Amino acid sequence: MSKETVSKKEWLFDSVWKLHMEGADWGSIRMEAVAKASGIPKGTIYEHFHSKDHLIAETILWSLKKEAEEICRKMAAASGFTAMLNVIFDWVGSPRGRTLFLMRFMDGGKLPEGLKRELYCSGKRDCGGLDTAEQVTEALIRSGFQEGVLETEGGRLARQTALYSALAPLIAYSMFPERYGGIGWEEVKTYSQGIFMGAFRKNEIMGKG
User: Cα(64)–Cα(158) distance, rounded to whole angstroms?
Assistant: First the structure.
């Protein structure tokens, strides 16, 4: 694949993403809008993507991969368990992170069937961004256990369940902050950190391998 092709595809991905962030649902984005936003003729777009769903699926996976690379970079630079956990928490609260995370867990039923199929097929070919969640969780728990902040490393189910449980308050707050009175983002992070750490006490079922 030529450098020009890569650049053109990334320009298209960025254009589709911007349309979505401006309020367009994934299923309502039209090729005409993508062509106008990107400045690339519709016919040229179809030279690289066989359908609109193909383009959008590749855009979503491209976004996940970009975010995965950024999270890994920040995790590697973070000093200690709390700093690493804050990298994850702050990403979930960011516009891009919130959009991708909620799409995976809440919006799946709203996606057109064609787009779901394309996401499945494209994800099987290249799922680096999706695999990063487990790698990041492993690094986080290893750091916490080595520091003595976590009493046990737990098993795979414990790790995944604990992280998703800890993220739930952050997602709820990100979606409807007005419902939580004077509570601030840092308070929610502290609460979520308590949920996560509590799951890895030796006397908790969650902490058992």
Answer: 24
